[in-house]
Amino acid sequence: MSDHVYKRVEIVGSSTTSIDDAIRTAIAQCSKTVKNVEWFEVQETRGHVENGQVAHFQVVLKVGFRIEPSA
Amino acid sequence: MSDHVYKRVEIVGSSTTSIDDAIRTAIAQCSKTVKNVEWFEVQETRGHVENGQVAHFQVVLKVGFRIEPSA
Amino acid sequence: MSDHVYKRVEIVGSSTTSIDDAIRTAIAQCSKTVKNVEWFEVQETRGHVENGQVAHFQVVLKVGFRIEPSA
Amino acid sequence: MSDHVYKRVEIVGSSTTSIDDAIRTAIAQCSKTVKNVEWFEVQETRGHVENGQVAHFQVVLKVGFRIEPSA
Amino acid sequence: MSDHVYKRVEIVGSSTTSIDDAIRTAIAQCSKTVKNVEWFEVQETRGHVENGQVAHFQVVLKVGFRIEPSA
Amino acid sequence: MSDHVYKRVEIVGSSTTSIDDAIRTAIAQCSKTVKNVEWFEVQETRGHVENGQVAHFQVVLKVGFRIEPSA
Amino acid sequence: MSDHVYKRVEIVGSSTTSIDDAIRTAIAQCSKTVKNVEWFEVQETRGHVENGQVAHFQVVLKVGFRIEPSA
Amino acid sequence: MSDHVYKRVEIVGSSTTSIDDAIRTAIAQCSKTVKNVEWFEVQETRGHVENGQVAHFQVVLKVGFRIEPSA
Amino acid sequence: MSDHVYKRVEIVGSSTTSIDDAIRTAIAQCSKTVKNVEWFEVQETRGHVENGQVAHFQVVLKVGFRIEPSA
Amino acid sequence: MSDHVYKRVEIVGSSTTSIDDAIRTAIAQCSKTVKNVEWFEVQETRGHVENGQVAHFQVVLKVGFRIEPSA
Amino acid sequence: MSDHVYKRVEIVGSSTTSIDDAIRTAIAQCSKTVKNVEWFEVQETRGHVENGQVAHFQVVLKVGFRIEPSA
Amino acid sequence: MSDHVYKRVEIVGSSTTSIDDAIRTAIAQCSKTVKNVEWFEVQETRGHVENGQVAHFQVVLKVGFRIEPSA
User: Fold this and answer.
1) Alpha helix positions (H), F1-71
2) Which residues of G touch L7 (CB under 8 A)?
3) I64 burial level (CB within 10 Å; 0-12, 13-18, 19+)
4) N or C: which end of chain K has fewer CB within 10 A?
């Protein structure tokens, strides 16, 4: 792990089911386009309400991934 | 959504089951007395411990609702 | 509850399953060595990612317990 | 001003025009139902984007008003 | 305490005497109109100065109270 | 809006005219290269001073946009 | 810009007109007595309300200026 | 109060007696050299311990005063 | 004081009397089991309310003490 | 510098040597793929420990760069 | 790393030489009495001044270590 | 140290060499005009980048000094 450089981006996942699922959805989606994702940090947890019920959970994540040296 | 005014109040939901359930309980209870609830933001997540186990999850939420113009 | 003194320590629980489970694991482990645990406060929620999926949820907690007067 | 008690509530004003206008709108609307409003504090400034342009400015305010002694 | 819902409001107490007194004044005044007040949290401590002396202490509190189920 | 994933990036807009204009400039410029921008959040407001006058307002924004599923 | 030392002070500008104007007023006033003002950072935006309308915008700024080496 | 400019400085008062007294001491001392002090805001409360007892309370204050127009 | 190492722990003191007393109680209690306590920092001030009156003040402190080199 | 737009990204540099070196490494690596980097802001400083010694310093930076108008 | 529990404590290291050295000193000292230290996070950097020069750098760290299951 | 009053000002030191050096430069420069400087606290660490390299480290400090009683 010596002298690696990482990048941290913010993504927002949502789910009608649970906070955990919103995180899993966001990580899975993010990993489709970014390689080497290593960790996440929850920044905010929020959601929408419709008809007096929770309609979606939304979780804002910082996601960290290793930048491969460009040679 | 032009020029609406919203209000944001703080409520605390609790649940013996899960964080998600504490949020759902709080939103459902809040919606009994407040109309037009549109979103929530988690402020704090905490809980009580009894006999070395989690007894309750408690979640502090900001809840936003639209104020209807009083004509 | 008059004039008690409490202590608050930070522990980090992890779980491959859910945030709730990471909290329960941490509290149960903490209670093995500390008596009179009364409450917890979530400080940070984060996790590790492996192969594009959430591998562990990690939750940093402040845990409060009553200090028994040393006589 | 001796020994008065004040209350502070959170409202969100929006405007298609400007941040200042979102604040003025919120204060004017709030004053329709609350007496003795004395000050405000901006908590967050945000907005919606449509078609690549700012559609609304939204300003979250804490609004302080004096509670009249109930006799 | 199972599955109760609480509300948290912000009030500002002032006193010419002391910080403690500003808190007591605010809690006593708040309890005149709100039932089931259970706890407070100090958010800010400030004050006014006149003639080079502290004229008032002002304490901003979050005050939590239990919402009674509306049947 | 079910189960969408969003990304949030930070941009800094500047304007010699006003805070509102710095925000509009940043959003318009950002929308040239990013599709589906939906909201912004002001993080910091600052500026440069020259000859004892405000020369530029600078506003740091978080800008949120929807990530289109890559099929 | 090598090895300069700067100082940062807090000033509060007010305006009956707008947030931008409160900033400009504060910077202009500050520059009357301080040389080499180079930047500002908005700390808080607040205001007074009279008769249900915004009476003054108040902006708390950190203002940075270069200290001239005293020889 | 139209269009005044204020300055805010940080001072630290200490007292062997109480938090309130540390604030009063700081304000009284500050007012010896600064005119037009109007308000204070507590930033931090801390203290020194000697022989297992509180030796001093220390309170960090922001103190605001009106700048008189220099004509 | 050269190259000492300190530790900082969190304790919560309570008092039916005053904030100052809650601090003094916590420090005195902490000093019974920890040597070389040198300073404290107030983190949170809160309390319980019973019958519409302040029943306890609770103060969360960080307490710093010097670690004696283990030879 | 009139009306430029900047972007701010988060990177994490690491170094076995020093905090300064972790920053320099991150900036140099970032500049390989991003043009017009103008400033950085340290967000977090942390590190790994192995065998009771600091193994790596890790520094989380916000890095700002000017976006060239796309014609 | 599955389902481990960690603890996080706060220590303050000091050094007459550099910030890096204050961190190394604190980690080395902490590792004398705590096993399995894995990471640190800088919380505050401060220092004492004597005769117009930096006399000591002081760094407040959170230090994380793995708790071994007590069987 | 009984009942002293201190003042805390913000200065920004810069250095092409290191963070430590930026702090030392700022403290030395500050001590030329202010007597009785006793401590500093790092508020922000940032810097400028030129040609893809760190050109300056900039450190924002709060600097505390004892105010001598004016007789």
Assistant:
1) 19-33
2) none
3) buried
4) C
Closest Cα to residue C57, out of C6, C10, C23? C23
Work out the percent of chain K whose per-residue pLDDT is above 90. 89
Cross-chain residue pair I60–C5, CB shorter than 8 Å: no
CA A46, CA B58: separation in Å to the nearest integer? 15
I54 touches chain K (CB under 8 A): no
Contact B52, C33 (CB under 8 A): no
pLDDT block averages, 10 residues each, chain F of length 71: 82 97 96 95 98 97 88 47
CATH assignment of C5-67, given 3.30.1660.10, 3.40.350.10, 3.40.190.10, 3.90.870.10?
A: 3.30.1660.10
| CATH superfamily, with its number, for domain L5-61 | Flavin-binding protein dodecin (3.30.1660.10)
Q: How far is C5 from chain B (nearest CA, A)?
A: 17
| Domain layout of chain G by residue ranges | 6-61
| Beta carbons of F6 and A63 less than 8 angstroms apart | no
Is a pLDDT exceeding 50 seen at residue G1? no
**Is the CB of residue H42 less than 8 Å from the CB of residue E46?**
yes
| Angstrom distances, CA of residue D63 to CA of B9, D43, E60, H37 | 12, 10, 13, 25
Classify B6-66 by CATH class.
alpha beta
* pLDDT tens per residue, range H20-71: 999 999 999 999 999 999 999 999 999 999 999 999 999 999 999 999 765 4
Q: What is the DSSP letter of J34?
A: -
Computed over its alpha carbons, how large is the radius of gyration of chain I? 15
Task: Judge whether E23 is closer than 8 Å to chain D, CB to CB.
Answer: no
G6 compared with H71, residue with greater pLDDT: G6
Judge G/K contact: 3 or more CB pairs < 8 A.
no
Summarize pLDDT for J40-63 with one digit per residue, the tens: 999 999 999 999 999 999 999 999
Q: How far is F4 from chain D (nearest CA, A)?
A: 17
Mutation target among L31, L37, L43, L61 for the K interface, most CBs of K within 10 A = L37
**Given this model, what pLDDT does residue G14 score?**
95
Question: pLDDT tens digits, residue range J13-28?
Answer: 999 999 999 999 999 9
Question: CB distance G12–H6 less than 8 Å?
Answer: yes
Tell which residue, K36, K64, K71, has the closest CA to residue C12. K64
Residue type, D46: R
Return the residue in E6, E11, E23, E32 with the most chain I beta carbons within 10 A, the one to mutate for interface testing: E23
Using the beta-carbon criterion (under 8 Å), do A32 and C49 form an inter-chain contact? no
Can chain J be said to touch chain C, i.e. do they have 3 or more Cβ pairs within 8 angstroms? no
Cα torsion through H7, H10, H15, H19, rounded to 10 = 80
Cβ–Cβ contact C62 with A under 8 A: no
**CB-based contacts of G25, cutoff 8 Å, min separation 6:** G13, G14, G15, H3, H5
Q: Left if phi > 0, otherwise alpha if psi is -120 to 50, otherwise beta: which for C33?
A: alpha
Q: Which of D5, D69, D70 sits opposite E12 (nearest CB)?
A: D5
What architecture does CATH give domain K6-61?
A: 2-Layer Sandwich (3.30)
**How far E58 CA sits from the closest chain B CA (Å)?**
22
Q: Region of I21 please: left (phi>0), alpha (psi -120 to 50) or beta.
A: alpha
List the structure tokens of I65. Answer: 């003490």
Cβ distance of K8 and C56 shorter than 8 Å? no
ipTM score above 0.90: yes
Closest to D20 (Cβ–Cβ): which among G19, G46, G49?
Answer: G19
**Domain boundaries F16-67, corresponding CATH code:** 3.30.1660.10
CATH number for J6-63: choose from 3.90.930.50, 3.30.565.10, 3.30.1660.10, 3.40.50.300: 3.30.1660.10
H3 has pLDDT over 90: no
CB-CB contact of C13 with C47 (8 Å): no
